[in-house]
Amino acid sequence: MAYSSAILSPAFIHTSPKLSPKLYKPNRQTLIVSAIPPLSTAADLSAITSPLDSTTLAVIGGGSVAALAAVLSIADPEMRRRSQAAEVGGGDKEVVREYFNNNGFERWKKIYGDTDEVNRVQLDIRIGHAKTVESVMKMLKDEGSLEGVTVCDAGCGTGLLSIPLAKEGAIVSASDISAAMVAEAEKQAREELLTGKDELSAAPVLPKFEVKDLESLDGKYHTVVCLDVLIHYPQSKADAMIAHLASLAEDRLILSFAPKTLYYDLLKRVGELFPGPSKATRAYLHAEADVEKALQKVGWRIRKRGLTTTQFYFAKLIEAVPA
Asked: What global pTM score does this model have?
């Protein structure tokens, strides 16, 4: 994978990076543009939007917001959330683990892969996530060579960040709460990093993959990266997760999260009214100010800020360093 997106501090500059053909195949599918803006990061938006046609999506906005808010005020999406937790006998973490080991794994394996069997929303999310990974790789390489740099990829998914990091010579520790995701990431890493290597050229060091939740991570790393994971944590728990991730990092911490604004919070609640045939996890948005405050509490400051937007993917990206 080749990544070249630009993120500068403190201003945000949105570029249109050249994506790998594996991630973006414009000749095979065309995105349909509607009036609805990007919504969030790793929430299962394909499940949210699949029951809605483009006409329905296009009328959500403008003068419809007030009426929509009135409808949502009597809705109770929390009921479905409680039902999910009861089914797996736990809280948010257990719901996430169950989802990404079963239906969620199959869905996100397709989204993060290179199959053509994705709908327009899933393809758009694939492109958005690829842009975020691209921006992170540029952030990291801007500081110099990654050869021998220790990196913790917390919430590695199918290895879309871990693998390019290993190709650059980084020593990667990658983990995910889902055993299915970890197995797929390790499979992809072996295929991309070891296949076709001759005896004369040194193969990259394979990432060390483990099944772990964020709370269980330990050790010390030059850099800790956690992409599109905080969406599974309410702010009260996210503060503790941010503090824990910062305690593992020696030089920098990179986070991406779905930003909380009045409009996007409203659109998220629309999605909760139309969950689709596949059950998704809870989706929590976070105000950038709250994330910054959590970092400041543990002696870190934000050095760079970025934003990734597509039609259905919306992520804030920050790089923090010790204050």
From this structure: 0.74
Tens-place pLDDT, residues 66-94: 554 544 444 444 555 555 545 545 577 88
Rounded to 5°, the CA angle 165-122-110 comes to 60
Residues 6+ apart with CB under 8 A from 254: 136, 139, 140, 223, 224, 225, 226, 227, 317, 318, 319, 320
Condensed to tens digits (0 to 9), the pLDDT of residues 260-290 reads 877 667 766 666 655 554 555 678 999 999 9
Q: Which range has the top average pLDDT, 58-67, 86-95, 229-238, 290-299? A: 290-299
Three-state secondary structure readout of the chain: CCCCCCCCCCCCCCCCCCCCCCCCCCCCCCCCCCCCCCCECCCCHHHHHCCCCHHHHHCCCCCHHHHHHHHHCCCCHHHHHHHHHHHHCCCHHHHHHHHHCCHHHHHHHHHHCCCCCCCHHHHHHHHHHHHHHHHHHHHHHHCCCCCCCEEEEECCCCCCCHHHHHHCCCEEEEEECCHHHHHHHHHHHHHHHHCCCCCCCCCCCCCEEEECCHHHCCCCEEEEEECCCHHHCCHHHHHHHHHHHHHHEEEEEEEEECECCHHHHHHHHHHHHCCCCCCCCCCCCECHHHHHHHHHHCCEEEEEEEEEECCCEEEEEEEEEEC
The burial of 235, by beta-carbon neighbours within 10 Å (0-12 exposed, 13-18 middle, 19 or more buried), is given as middle
Separation in Å, CA 221 to CA 180, 249, 257: 25, 5, 21
Nearest 5 degrees, angle CA 112-CA 42-CA 212? 80
Chain position carrying tokens 């009214």: 273
Cα distances (Å, whole numbers) of residue 288 to 195, 257, 278, 313, 318: 41, 9, 30, 17, 9
